[in-house]
């Protein structure tokens, strides 16, 4: 037992297997810091999750989310965030990717400004990946990371002048089952934060950078306050100046879009920007408004950033950030490079159009999923940002006000049989990959991760719930879904080949997909039931 002020702190119980990197990642100091953070912040995190449920109950009963009357003064008054460090001023193109060793090296060497190393949407957080991912980032920060691909002998090492590193931690809803305190799993978010911060802050600061984080899936400014307290505690604990930790928050839930000023305010010492996490945002629109029959979304393919409700979100985020001196980051076009030149030309055209829309709106940077898109994205952002580091000068103050109605407006478009079948094939293949330990996969030429797959599966639940009629006149029911699922599993088998299909976990994936799609209540995150299966499936779980 260690002491936290006058309190005794329960130690952390390690439930995960010992791995090659365990010794240097899960040091005594790390376990002590985790115990301190768990003792202080695990119970308040449980209360925040409870508050999410309470708010959702009201929305389920007919209320709509909106700006909070109690925090109007924060929205009205003039104040600014503390500041942005030199190496975060210019973030015009950021690459994202899971914390696999080879990809970390490739991403840091990509022709981009920032690499967001992801423990979230693109990572299936098996114990092995969590521990190895931290070790990979320790080596990346030390500059010693290397990898040789056993399949072809190709060797990887860091080039000179790698991208700036930002670590994205898990969302507040996910537990880390392999680290327990008092019989309770630690929040995954605290584990990812604590390990990356503890092991790397000194090395990062000594080379003129710092402990930088992306925080995903926030739903309220009270959650931002919780993070501000975690940061303040950690800075004081390690003798750092307040505001040393720098953070960018994803605004990727519908409730959070109404609290952007408040989130910036709560985190004003630490925050440098907000990001339009469009895929989770679309998922959250479905989830939050799931009981509202007038706000059912059409086919995923037509819900693009040009749709008025998404364009309003992007523009309000830019205006809010720039007024406070914070960066307004854009999001991810899910396209990835194609092998055949004709498709590749179309991919580049679509990526260019997407990035142009963001840059024209005034975003300070954008995301890419693959190094092969760096040049295209950089070309567009350079055109708009030029020699300046960012577009903080674009205020959007003269725009007409963006209201709750704009942010909540229904999205036009059809629900089609083709769209439903595509959603089924994508969701089942993604779930199969995730429960097998792979959180990001190319499917039909697009990057699919936890956020994009959530849209596919939640859409079908919503269409069943509201009796949506497809373009072919069919009523969406559970029976129709089950019939299509069986047919589409056969299509996937043909596409992938019997050997891959039979040696995979498609039965298990279909079972989970069926359960969450036919459930009376929409499952909050597919990764919650998925995590239990993942832990059993992965040998070190
Ligand atoms: C909604 C959101 O949250 S978006 C953020 C989360 N999502 C992501 O981060 C997506 C990250 N992207 C990826 O994981 C990958 O691009 C995938 C899985 C979609 C496709 O990967 P692959 O099938 O390996 O693509 P491909 O074969 O074309 O890769 C070519 C090379 O680029 C590398 N590469 C591809 N994407 C990335 C990336 N994001 N970061 C670093 N390297 C990458 C591959 O490792 C490969 O390297 P190699 O030639 O040295 O072997
Ligand atoms: O995290 C990003 C998103 O689009 O979701
Ligand atoms: Mg997301």
Automatic annotation (TrEMBL):
Tell me the InterPro entries matching this sequence. Malate_synth_C_sf, Malate_synth_sf, Malate_synthA, Malate_synthase_CS, Malate_synthase_TIM, MS_C, MS_N, MS_N_TIM-barrel_dom
The residues covered by the Malate synthase N-terminal domain are: 21-72
Superkingdom of origin: Bacteria
Residue span(s) of domain Malate synthase C-terminal: 415-532
An example Gene Ontology biological process: glyoxylate cycle
Q: Which family does it belong to?
A: Belongs to the malate synthase family.
What is this protein's record name? Malate synthase
């Amino acid at each position: 037992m260690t002491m936290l002020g006058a309190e005794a702190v329960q130690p952390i119980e390690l439930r995960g297997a010992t791995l090659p990197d365990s010794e240097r990642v899960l040091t005594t100091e790390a376990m002590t810091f985790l115990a301190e953070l768990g003792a202080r912040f695990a119970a308040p995190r449980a209360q925040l999750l409870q508050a999410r449920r309470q708010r959702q109950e009201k929305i389920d009963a007919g209320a709509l989310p909106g700006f909070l009357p109690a925090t109007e003064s924060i929205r009205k008054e003039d104040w600014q965030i503390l500041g942005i460090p030199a190496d975060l001023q210019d973030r015009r193109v950021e690459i994202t990717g899971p914390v696999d060793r080879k990809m970390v090296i490739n991403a840091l060497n990509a022709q981009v400004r920032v690499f967001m190393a992801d423990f979230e949407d693109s990572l299936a957080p098996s114990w092995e990946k969590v521990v190895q991912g931290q070790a990979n980032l320790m080596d990346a920060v030390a500059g010693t990371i290397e990898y040789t691909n056993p399949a072809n002998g190709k060797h990887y090492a860091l080039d000179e002048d790698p991208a700036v590193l930002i670590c994205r931690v898990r969302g507040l809803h996910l537990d880390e089952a392999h680290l327990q305190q008092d019989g309770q799993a630690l929040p995954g978010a605290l584990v990812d934060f604590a390990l990356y911060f503890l092991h790397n802050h000194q090395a990062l600061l000594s080379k003129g950078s710092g402990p930088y984080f992306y925080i995903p899936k926030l739903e309220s400014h009270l959650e931002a306050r919780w993070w501000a307290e975690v940061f303040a505690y950690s800075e004081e604990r390690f003798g750092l100046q307040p505001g040393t930790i720098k953070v960018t928050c994803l605004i990727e839930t519908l409730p959070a879009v109404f609290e952007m000023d408040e989130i910036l305010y709560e985190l004003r010492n630490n925050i440098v920007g907000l990001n339009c996490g469009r895929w989770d945002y679309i998922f959250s629109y479905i989830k939050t408004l799931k009981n509202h029959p007038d706000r059912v979304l059409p086919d995923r393919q037509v819900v693009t950033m040009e749709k008025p409700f998404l364009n309003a979100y992007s523009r309000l985020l830019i205006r809010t950030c720039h007024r406070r001196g914070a960066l307004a980051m854009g999001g991810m076009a899910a396209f990835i490079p194609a092998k055949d030149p004709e498709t590749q030309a179309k991919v580049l055209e679509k990526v260019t159009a997407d990035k142009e829309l963001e840059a024209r709106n005034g975003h300070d940077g954008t995301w890419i999923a693959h190094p092969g898109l760096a040049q295209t994205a950089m070309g567009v952002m350079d055109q708009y940002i030029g020699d300046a580091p960012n577009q903080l000068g674009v205020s959007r103050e003269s725009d007409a006000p963006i209201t709750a109605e704009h942010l909540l407006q229904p999205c036009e478009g059809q629900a089609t049989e083709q769209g439903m079948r595509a959603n089924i094939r994508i969701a089942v293949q993604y779930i199969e990959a995730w429960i097998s330990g792979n959180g990001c996969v190319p499917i039909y030429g697009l990057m699919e991760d936890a956020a994009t797959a959530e849209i596919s599966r939640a859409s079908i639940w919503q269409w069943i719930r509201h009796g949506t009629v497809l373009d072919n006149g069919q009523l969406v029911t559970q029976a129709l879904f089950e019939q299509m699922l069986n047919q589409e599993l056969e299509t996937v088998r043909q596409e992938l080949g019997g050997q891959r299909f039979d040696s995979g976990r498609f039965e298990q994936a279909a079972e989970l997909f069926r359960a969450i799609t036919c459930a009376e209540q929409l499952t909050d995150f597919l990764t919650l039931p998925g995590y239990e299966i993942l832990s059993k499936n992965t040998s070190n779980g």
